[in-house]
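Long-time lurker. I teach an intro course on protein structure, and each term I like to show students one example going from raw sequence to a predicted 3D structure in C-alpha coordinate notation. This year I'd like something fresh instead of my usual example. Would anyone be willing to generate the C-alpha coordinates for the chain below so I can use it in lecture? Attribution to the forum is fine with me.
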Amino acid sequence: MSSTDHSPYRVTVVCWGNICRSPMAEFILRQAFEDAGLGDRVVVDSAGTSTEELGRRMDRRTIATMVLHGVRDTGFGDKRARQFRHDSYDDSDLVLAADHVHDEILRRRARGPEDSAKIRLLRSFDPDAVAAGTLGMEDPWYGDDEDFDTTYAEIVAATPGIVDFVRGQLT
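-- Reply from a regular --
Happy to contribute to a lecture. Here you go:
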Protein backbone atom coordinates (compact mmCIF):
# COMPACT_ATOMS: atom_id res chain seq x y z
CA MET A 1 0.00 0.00 0.00
CA SER A 2 1.46 3.33 -0.98
CA SER A 3 1.19 6.56 0.94
CA THR A 4 -0.90 7.99 -1.92
CA ASP A 5 -3.50 5.23 -1.56
CA HIS A 6 -6.34 6.62 0.55
CA SER A 7 -8.37 3.43 0.89
CA PRO A 8 -8.36 1.91 4.37
CA TYR A 9 -6.05 -0.95 5.25
CA ARG A 10 -8.23 -3.98 5.99
CA VAL A 11 -7.44 -6.53 8.70
CA THR A 12 -9.53 -9.69 9.06
CA VAL A 13 -9.13 -12.02 12.04
CA VAL A 14 -10.19 -15.63 11.45
CA CYS A 15 -11.00 -18.48 13.85
CA TRP A 16 -13.34 -21.47 13.60
CA GLY A 17 -16.87 -20.17 14.25
CA ASN A 18 -16.36 -16.40 14.57
CA ILE A 19 -17.99 -16.21 18.00
CA CYS A 20 -14.99 -16.28 20.40
CA ARG A 21 -11.38 -15.67 19.38
CA SER A 22 -11.72 -13.73 16.14
CA PRO A 23 -14.42 -11.27 17.24
CA MET A 24 -12.56 -10.67 20.51
CA ALA A 25 -9.46 -9.83 18.48
CA GLU A 26 -11.55 -7.69 16.10
CA PHE A 27 -12.75 -5.41 18.91
CA ILE A 28 -9.39 -5.32 20.73
CA LEU A 29 -7.57 -4.41 17.51
CA ARG A 30 -10.21 -1.88 16.49
CA GLN A 31 -9.67 -0.10 19.82
CA ALA A 32 -5.87 -0.34 19.51
CA PHE A 33 -5.87 1.21 16.03
CA GLU A 34 -8.19 3.96 17.22
CA ASP A 35 -5.94 4.64 20.24
CA ALA A 36 -2.89 4.72 17.92
CA GLY A 37 -4.55 7.40 15.79
CA LEU A 38 -5.11 4.99 12.89
CA GLY A 39 -8.83 4.41 13.32
CA ASP A 40 -9.67 6.31 10.15
CA ARG A 41 -7.07 4.42 8.12
CA VAL A 42 -7.60 0.82 9.30
CA VAL A 43 -10.74 -1.31 9.19
CA VAL A 44 -10.88 -4.47 11.32
CA ASP A 45 -13.38 -7.28 10.99
CA SER A 46 -13.50 -11.01 11.65
CA ALA A 47 -14.81 -14.25 10.19
CA GLY A 48 -14.76 -18.00 10.73
CA THR A 49 -13.58 -20.87 8.61
CA SER A 50 -16.68 -22.96 9.29
CA THR A 51 -20.38 -22.42 8.65
CA GLU A 52 -21.47 -23.82 12.04
CA GLU A 53 -22.17 -20.47 13.70
CA LEU A 54 -23.23 -18.34 10.72
CA GLY A 55 -25.42 -15.44 11.77
CA ARG A 56 -24.98 -16.04 15.49
CA ARG A 57 -23.93 -13.46 18.04
CA MET A 58 -20.64 -13.62 19.89
CA ASP A 59 -20.42 -16.09 22.76
CA ARG A 60 -21.63 -14.37 25.93
CA ARG A 61 -18.29 -15.20 27.59
CA THR A 62 -16.45 -13.33 24.82
CA ILE A 63 -18.48 -10.21 25.52
CA ALA A 64 -18.15 -10.61 29.30
CA THR A 65 -14.36 -10.91 29.01
CA MET A 66 -14.09 -7.80 26.85
CA VAL A 67 -16.35 -5.81 29.19
CA LEU A 68 -14.32 -7.00 32.21
CA HIS A 69 -11.11 -5.78 30.58
CA GLY A 70 -12.52 -2.45 29.43
CA VAL A 71 -12.69 -3.04 25.69
CA ARG A 72 -14.89 -0.32 24.22
CA ASP A 73 -18.19 -1.55 22.83
CA THR A 74 -18.04 -0.49 19.18
CA GLY A 75 -20.81 -2.84 18.10
CA PHE A 76 -20.79 -5.99 20.26
CA GLY A 77 -24.53 -6.47 19.79
CA ASP A 78 -24.38 -6.04 16.03
CA LYS A 79 -21.60 -8.57 15.41
CA ARG A 80 -22.79 -11.73 13.64
CA ALA A 81 -20.67 -14.71 12.66
CA ARG A 82 -19.71 -14.91 9.01
CA GLN A 83 -17.52 -17.22 6.95
CA PHE A 84 -14.19 -16.34 5.36
CA ARG A 85 -14.43 -17.64 1.79
CA HIS A 86 -12.18 -17.62 -1.27
CA ASP A 87 -13.35 -14.17 -2.33
CA SER A 88 -12.89 -12.74 1.17
CA TYR A 89 -9.23 -12.18 0.30
CA ASP A 90 -10.40 -9.36 -1.97
CA ASP A 91 -11.59 -7.47 1.13
CA SER A 92 -8.47 -8.07 3.24
CA ASP A 93 -4.91 -6.78 3.26
CA LEU A 94 -3.89 -8.82 6.32
CA VAL A 95 -5.58 -12.06 7.41
CA LEU A 96 -4.78 -13.10 10.98
CA ALA A 97 -5.37 -16.78 11.73
CA ALA A 98 -6.14 -17.62 15.37
CA ASP A 99 -4.60 -21.09 15.27
CA HIS A 100 -2.62 -23.44 13.03
CA VAL A 101 -5.73 -25.21 11.74
CA HIS A 102 -7.16 -21.89 10.54
CA ASP A 103 -3.84 -21.03 8.91
CA GLU A 104 -3.96 -24.34 7.00
CA ILE A 105 -7.60 -23.84 5.92
CA LEU A 106 -6.91 -20.27 4.83
CA ARG A 107 -3.91 -21.38 2.79
CA ARG A 108 -6.04 -24.05 1.07
CA ARG A 109 -8.67 -21.40 0.27
CA ALA A 110 -6.09 -18.99 -1.11
CA ARG A 111 -6.40 -18.56 -4.86
CA GLY A 112 -2.69 -18.02 -5.32
CA PRO A 113 0.49 -16.51 -3.87
CA GLU A 114 -1.05 -13.03 -3.51
CA ASP A 115 -3.76 -14.39 -1.19
CA SER A 116 -1.31 -16.61 0.72
CA ALA A 117 1.01 -13.66 1.34
CA LYS A 118 -1.76 -11.96 3.35
CA ILE A 119 -2.00 -14.77 5.95
CA ARG A 120 -0.20 -14.63 9.30
CA LEU A 121 -0.80 -16.34 12.62
CA LEU A 122 -2.08 -13.69 15.02
CA ARG A 123 0.38 -14.67 17.74
CA SER A 124 3.32 -14.39 15.32
CA PHE A 125 3.24 -10.68 16.24
CA ASP A 126 3.97 -11.48 19.91
CA PRO A 127 7.77 -11.75 20.36
CA ASP A 128 7.38 -13.89 23.50
CA ALA A 129 5.10 -16.37 21.70
CA VAL A 130 7.56 -16.51 18.81
CA ALA A 131 10.48 -17.15 21.20
CA ALA A 132 8.50 -19.87 23.00
CA GLY A 133 7.26 -21.42 19.76
CA THR A 134 3.65 -21.14 20.97
CA LEU A 135 1.94 -19.46 18.05
CA GLY A 136 -1.35 -21.32 18.30
CA MET A 137 -4.37 -20.13 20.27
CA GLU A 138 -6.61 -22.65 22.01
CA ASP A 139 -10.37 -22.37 21.50
CA PRO A 140 -11.82 -21.00 24.76
CA TRP A 141 -15.33 -22.16 23.81
CA TYR A 142 -14.58 -25.58 25.32
CA GLY A 143 -13.34 -24.09 28.59
CA ASP A 144 -14.34 -21.65 31.28
CA ASP A 145 -13.87 -17.96 32.08
CA GLU A 146 -10.16 -18.51 32.71
CA ASP A 147 -9.75 -19.79 29.14
CA PHE A 148 -11.39 -16.61 27.80
CA ASP A 149 -9.01 -14.55 29.94
CA THR A 150 -6.10 -16.50 28.43
CA THR A 151 -7.39 -15.76 24.94
CA TYR A 152 -7.72 -12.08 25.83
CA ALA A 153 -4.14 -11.99 27.16
CA GLU A 154 -2.78 -13.72 24.04
CA ILE A 155 -4.50 -11.23 21.74
CA VAL A 156 -3.39 -8.24 23.81
CA ALA A 157 0.23 -9.49 23.78
CA ALA A 158 0.20 -9.60 19.95
CA THR A 159 -1.62 -6.29 19.49
CA PRO A 160 1.36 -3.88 19.64
CA GLY A 161 3.18 -5.93 16.99
CA ILE A 162 0.12 -5.96 14.76
CA VAL A 163 -0.36 -2.20 15.11
CA ASP A 164 3.34 -1.57 14.35
CA PHE A 165 3.22 -3.88 11.30
CA VAL A 166 0.11 -2.18 9.89
CA ARG A 167 1.53 1.28 10.59
CA GLY A 168 4.55 0.25 8.51
CA GLN A 169 2.27 -0.89 5.69
CA LEU A 170 0.58 2.50 5.66
CA THR A 171 3.79 4.46 5.00
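Some talking points for your students: Residues 14 and 97 are 5 Å apart (CA to CA). The mean pLDDT is 96.
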